[in-house]
Amino acid sequence: MADKAEKKKAVEKSIDPAVLEVLEKATAAGISTMFSRVDEMKPCPIGAAGECCKICSMGPCRITGKDKENKTGICGATLDTVAARNFARAVCAGASSHSDHGRDIALTLLAVAKGEAKDYQIKDEIKLHEVARLMNISTEGKTKEKIAEEVALKALNNFGKQDSEPLTYVSRAPKKRQELWKKLGLAPRGIDREVVETLHRTHAGTDQDAEHILDQVMRTALGSGWGGSMLATDLSDILFGTPHPLRAKANLGVLKKDEVNIILHGHEPTLSEMIVAASREQDMIDYAKSKGAKGINLAGICCTANEILMRQGVSVAGNVLHQELAIITGAVDAMVVDVQCVFQSLAKIAESYHTLLITTSAKAKIKGVTHVQFDEHRPMEIAKEIVKMAIDNFSNRKEVSIPSFSNDLIAGFSHEYIRYMLGGKYRASFRPLNDNIINGRILGAAAIVGCNNPRVVHDKAIIHIAKELIKNNVLVVVTGCSAHASGKAGLLAPETMEHAGEGLKEVCEAVGISPIIHVGSCVDNSRILTILSEVVEEGGLGDDISDLPAVGICPEWYCEKALEIAVYCVASGAYVLFGGVDSPVSGCEPLVKYMIDGWEAKVGGKLEFEPDAQKIVEKTLEHIQKKRKALKIDKAKERILYDMESRRELSV
What we know:
Layout: H1 4-11, H2 17-29, H3 34-40, H4 45-48, E1 52-53, E2 61-62, H5 79-113, H6 125-134, H7 144-160, H8 175-184, H9 191-201, H10 210-240, E3 246-250, E4 260-266, H11 269-279, H12 282-290, E5 296-301, H13 302-312, E6 316-318, H14 323-328, E7 334-337, H15 345-351, E8 356-359, E9 370-371, H16 379-393, E10 407-411, H17 415-423, H18 431-438, E11 444-448, H19 460-471, E12 474-479, H20 480-488, H21 502-511, E13 516-520, H22 525-538, E14 550-554, H23 560-571, E15 575-578, H24 589-603, E16 606-609, H25 613-630, H26 644-649
Parallel strand pairs: 4-5, 4-7, 5-6, 7-8, 8-9, 11-12, 11-14, 12-13, 14-15, 15-16
Antiparallel strand pairs: 1-2, 3-10
């Protein structure tokens, strides 16, 4: 068994008891995990601060030291140019990943519309018509298949279009925001065009003005937020159903000792949705029983988990840092992965256990790992093949040790459902939300989104910030791995309202919701953009997203997608706070300052890196109060009870 020093070190890694239990097992078995390797691999301080340029073979050049502001690379590139280029390329990669997700969903919808992918169906025809309306596509006299074909083609056109007109969904932003983007030249044109232009500008000897580079960074990120990501969300709703609240559980305790356990991990729903369907087919259940299992149990990790959680009610095994630990339980018969946040270390860990690791995407293979190529034209056939492989592996289990920890949660709050929840079927509206922000019962709103990072205590900042904000009457929405952290901590159930401030608690009790609301996967941060835009349109809280008493927070970020989300939120007018590790441009103080003060002056939003979780809470509350004061809703209004005579005097 692990000695006391090792146990103490494990406790410092996570606040999740299931994680601590499995880490103790890993330590005893000599299994290397992200939690142990992070101590062995120290970050390069030069690269972490954005002070290293390696875009050409004259370098790499390091621009460091006390006089670094006066130093240049061999080509003459200054520190701010180098740091801006590095940041731009990171955001570009993040925008590419989320937008490519949207492209694949659009291609699947097109195949369904043409009758080439018969295992799928259009599950939300109302959403199809709504998206067609947003795209200015006439629906009169057309079959749903014809409408879907035109929607898919219009979506795909957003990726490759060559004219200078903005992307289709830019029209969903508040009018004032659209006008600002047009004035500043920030409105995204083609999704792929912006990505290519960013890479072109950051080639050696091209764009060498940091502010100009960062303008293009915003336009590229907006191409994802109001383009690829938003399309991914809407088209997924059309194909797989718009989410509505479903009950499930979260944490490694959802694994079952007597059933075939299949973990679905990654980001794209096209195969995972079909594996869910296949696992519920009677022939697959019967086959599992013939192999000695009582049934088939699915669980998700990362954003694939969110996709199948909010549409199918499949429970969550954990967030991104659980992927290795799930295998170490010895209970996972197959881990099926596609793209993004799937770590190569899984292959080595799987060798020590019986778990069959299966890659499925043409874009992402892992050396030495079983690959089953996904094809949207025959998804059920492939899904059943994978489920059968997992069942056949059930008998190869060795020692199984599943932590008992899990918590109930409710997930699946699309912006459509939130409108319905607040106003009912015939009066669906954000008006009650606006009114309760105006009257002060709800102070404001915060989105807690994004990843985990083993360089900080797993889940700790996410949970601390969430609890502190609801205590101060701030409504919280969560996505991605932050949503999983909240679910594992028991914060995604209505009972959480007991931890909320009196005003927020009163509203939550009236509506019957948790003060922390699950709104989807990382790509579904686009739902938050839609919510903010509709709140502005509802009226009473300003005429742009930058007027709202709202903040975006990513407490434990680790990847390029997080930076891309941050930038499109900032460019949309939001104040965004990142916690955990420091800014990737921390070595260039003028750039750090520009992303706060310069961006706020230019677009009304700003990006700030703050490693202290409590300071994030304080800055969030300060910003919300500042916005309330600007809206003149910062003073408590006395409640007046009118008698009949007083009512007669009221003008109508």
